């Protein structure tokens, strides 16, 4: 096994290439305001240990799934993600978003990765919530190509998406979001654009709509509040919150609304829709600053502000804002729970050789 790992490291050094993503129009575009320095390779600092028991793996999934079939699988993905984030931290935020968008449509099955074909000209990645704002596809491609050279036909694209999101959260949080992830997912063969609008919550949703949207996927109110914390990093297109800075004004902090009106056109459209940072305090850091911003009404989306419209969710926001380390631990658990949504099996899935097309 040690010799195989050594070969894998040599392959890794030879094959890792730059990962880029295009800016685009959509619900949220994740790009960093400015680069941050990331460690070379795996970090040496000690991450904050989780204090909550992770949810049990889903049917057919287990921790360390590739320990024998492809020992360096998770290491390879982490190194690819680390390289991409060193170039652009916004790619890491995009990978976290990709995991969410994949799981909420057809389950966590890599269906969001499928390109358009003659047989299926409108897959998920072309849906309004995804195109062309969803980013990080090149990172998944790089990791998958590396895995196929070392252990072909073994690691699913669905698992690569979830590994990449976990690793992105790890790096962007300063190693504070750290969790084990069960694997063994199969890749789906179905991907439809119209399902993105049916299952992905838009930024205009109110609290009851958000709660129902998450409930359908087996996630509760706490998961909703905790996963909303991913809005602590990245950028958003003005069109996603233009209604909140128009006249009459919303409940957004007046100072922030004034700043945003100076950055956004009055009527953003496909050709004129700039982006702004989502977290004006720690734009490049995945942390609990988001909840402090919610309390100060310095957030962009109606779905963010909606967290203060009930006593239950407002108290959760308060706890995540003030209790040190609480949100990071809960976010790790919620990400694992989300990764178990509607898992495919050998009967309705496959292990794709190329993440962009079915076998």
Automatic annotation (TrEMBL):
Keywords: Calcium, Disulfide bond, Glycoprotein, Heme, Hydrogen peroxide, Iron, Metal-binding, Oxidoreductase, Peroxidase, Secreted, Signal. Belongs to the peroxidase family. Classical plant (class III) peroxidase subfamily. Belongs to the peroxidase family. Ascorbate peroxidase subfamily. Its EC number is 1.11.1.7. It is found in: Secreted. GO terms for molecular function: heme binding; lactoperoxidase activity; metal ion binding. Its main location: secreted. Coiled coil: none annotated. The record marks 97 as: Transition state stabilizer. Transmembrane segments: none annotated. Heme b binds at residue 231. This is Peroxidase. Ca(2+) 2 binds at residues 279, 282, 287. It comes from Panicum hallii var. hallii. Its cofactor is Ca(2+); heme b. Ca(2+) 1 binds at residues 102, 105, 107, 109, 111, 124. One of its GO terms (cellular component) is extracellular region. Removal of H(2)O(2), oxidation of toxic reductants, biosynthesis and degradation of lignin, suberization, auxin catabolism, response to environmental stresses such as wounding, pathogen attack and oxidative stress.
């Amino acid at each position: 096994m040690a010799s195989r790992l050594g070969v894998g490291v040599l392959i890794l050094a030879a094959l890792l290439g730059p990962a880029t993503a295009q800016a685009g129009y959509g619900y949220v575009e994740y790009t960093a305001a400015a680069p941050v320095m990331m460690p070379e390779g795996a970090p040496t600092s000690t991450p904050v240990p989780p204090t909550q028991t992770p949810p049990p793996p889903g049917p057919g999934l287990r921790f360390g799934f590739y320990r024998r079939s492809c020992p360096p699988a998770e290491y390879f993905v982490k190194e690819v993600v680390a390289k991409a984030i060193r170039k652009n931290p916004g790619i890491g935020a995009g990978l976290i978003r990709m995991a969410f968008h994949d799981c909420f449509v057809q389950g966590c099955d890599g269906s969001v990765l499928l390109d358009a074909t003659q047989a299926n000209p409108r897959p998920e990645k072309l849906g309004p919530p995804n195109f062309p704002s969803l980013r990080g596809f090149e990172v998944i491609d790089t990791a998958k190509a590396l895995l196929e050279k070392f252990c072909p036909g073994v690691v699913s694209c669905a698992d690569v998406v979830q590994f990449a999101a976990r690793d992105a959260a790890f790096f962007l949080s300063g190693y504070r979001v750290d969790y084990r992830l069960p694997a063994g997912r199969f890749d789906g063969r179905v991907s439809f654009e119209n399902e993105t609008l049916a299952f992905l919550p838009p930024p205009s949703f109110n609290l009851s709509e958000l709660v129902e949207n998450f409930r359908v996927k087996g996630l509760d109110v706490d998961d909703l509040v905790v996963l909303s914390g991913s809005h602590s990093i990245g950028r958003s297109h003005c069109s996603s919150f233009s209604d909140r800075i128009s006249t009459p004004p919303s409940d957004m902090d007046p100072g922030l609304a004034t700043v945003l009106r100076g950055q956004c056109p009055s009527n953003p459209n496909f050709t004129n829709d700039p982006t702004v940072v989502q977290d004006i305090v720690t734009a490049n850091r995945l942390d609990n600053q988001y909840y402090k911003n919610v309390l100060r009404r310095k957030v962009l989306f109606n779905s963010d502000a909606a967290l203060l419209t009930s006593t239950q969710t407002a108290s959760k926001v308060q706890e995540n804002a003030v209790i040190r380390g609480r949100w990071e631990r809960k976010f790790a658990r919620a990400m694992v729970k989300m990764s178990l949504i509607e898992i495919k099996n050998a009967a309705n899935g496959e292990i794709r050789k190329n993440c962009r097309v079915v076998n």
